[in-house]
Structures are given as C-alpha cells and as structure tokens.
Amino acid sequence: MAVTEIRPLAIEDSGILADLHRENREFLRPWDPPRSEEFFSHSGQRAAVESALRERDAGRRWPGVVLQSGVIVGQVNLNNILLGPLRSCFLGYWISGRCNGRGIATAAVSQALDVAFRELDLHRVDAFAREDNPASCRVLEKSGFRTVGISRGHIHIDGRWRDDIYFQKLAPWDDGVRLTAC
Ligand SMILES: CC(C)(COP(=O)(O)OP(=O)(O)OC[C@H]1O[C@@H](n2cnc3c(N)ncnc32)[C@H](O)[C@@H]1OP(=O)(O)O)[C@@H](O)C(=O)NCCC(=O)NCCS
C-alpha cells in the first residue's frame, strides 16, 4: 500500500523540486504567484530551497516535502510562524497533478498539523483557499478546519487580486486558557 509521509525540506531536494515544478507549471499557474524562468531551473530551485531553509533557521517557517512511497510528489509549508501571544502560522501545500485524487494532500496536511501543534507547539493554523478551488477547500474541511469568512483581495495571483476563503484550526489541546500545550 502506498504510504504518504512528510519530512523537513533539505537542500538535496532542489533538483527533484525543479523537475516537479517544470512538470506542474501549467497545473500550478492559477494558484501560484508569477514565477521567473529561473525558478524552474535547478539553480533557481536551489536558491528557493536555500531561502526557505534560512527562514526555517530564523524560526519563521517550517518547509516540508510530501513523499508518496518515498518519492517527492509535492510540498507542504507552515509559513509566517508567529510566537508570543499569537502562536500561529499559515499552511500552504501542493501535490503534483498526476498524483491528485488519492488522499495525499489530506494525509500530508494531517501530518503538518501534528508538526504545528505538537512539535512547534503552536495554537492556531490558518489556511486560505479560493472558492474556485473546491479540491483545496475539501482538503481543509476533511482536515477539520472551520471557515472564518471571506478575505477580500487577499492575494495577487494570475494577474489580479483574488478573494480567498479564510479557514482556521485550533490546537487539539486548546482549552481557551493555556498558552502552550505544556
Ligand atoms: C488541492 C490539492 C492540494 C489537492 O490534492 P489531492 O492530493 O488531490 O487532495 P486529496 O486527494 O487529499 O483530497 C481532494 C478532495 O477534493 C475533492 N475534489 C477534487 N476535485 C473536486 C472538485 N472539482 N469539486 C469538488 N471536490 C473535489 C476530492 O474528491 C477529494 O475529496 P474526497 O476525499 O471527499 O473525495 C491539489 O489539487 C493541488 O496541489 N492543487 C494546486 C495547488 C493548490 O491548489 N494548492 C492549495 C492552495 S490553497
């Protein structure tokens, strides 16, 4: 049986991610910010991974890859990590088009939530998805996210500002009082 796992991003992943981004260029175009040609090259992905790892080292981000039976098929990221009285982040993910519809994103999100709520001891994970992206909305619903409302003009994608549905999920240990799990 195929097993979905996530693990922290590593510099050695750059080449495979460049290949995967090239393969999914059209598939991801409606959902991604504009990308330079360089982004799709091995050197461009190496720079992107190095930048993500610097963000990780600064405690601002947890970048991960999604593997299906040991092969990288996508990425999952906990972005904009905020500590203090907020202890939150926002979740981003994508899965290669040829691997869609097998529950991979749902399994990856579940594991990323474990990282957020157990390893990083965060209290809330935010996520955003467009109304015209029912697959992503469904992944969030299946993962126990609740809809907060519409975030107007939230992101500039594919040539214009787009509204997003704003979802959030609180840590399983939330009791309305405790700042952290322990
Ligand atoms: C969204 C995305 C991550 C989904 O990945 P995936 O591995 O196919 O997701 P899963 O298989 O875990 O779940 C998909 C769910 O959406 C449902 N779905 C797919 N297309 C749908 C559609 N057009 N309408 C309604 N539901 C749809 C599937 O049936 C499944 O739900 P189910 O298990 O109840 O049947 C993937 O398509 C992707 O990377 N898209 C491009 C980037 C993106 O949108 N990232 C998220 C940005 S917020």
How would you describe this structure to a colleague?
By secondary structure, the protein is of the alpha+beta class. The chain has a domain at 4-122: 3-Layer(aba) Sandwich (Aminopeptidase). Helices cover 30% and strands 34% of the residues. The chain has 5 helices and 7 strands. A 7-stranded mixed sheet has the order 1-2-3-4-5-7-6, sandwiched between helices. Helix 1 (14-23) crosses helix 3. It is globular, with a radius of gyration of 16 Å. The protein starts with a strand and ends in a 12-residue tail after the last strand. The mean pLDDT is 97.
Structural class: alpha+beta
Largest sheet: 7 strands, mixed
Rough outline: globular
CATH superfamily of the domain at 4-122: Gcn5-related N-acetyltransferase (GNAT)
CATH class of the domain at 4-122: Alpha Beta
Low-confidence stretches: none
- Roughly what is the average pLDDT, rounded to an integer? 97
Using only CA atoms, what is the Rg?
16 Å
Determine the fraction of residues in helical runs and give it as a percent range: 25-40%
Question: What is the overall number of helices?
Answer: 5
- The CATH architecture term of the domain at 4-122 is 3-Layer(aba) Sandwich
Ligand species: coenzyme A
What order do the strands of the largest sheet run in, or round the barrel if closed? 1-2-3-4-5-7-6
Instruction: Determine the N-to-C terminus distance.
Output: 36 Å
Q: What percentage of amino acids are in beta strands?
A: 25-35%
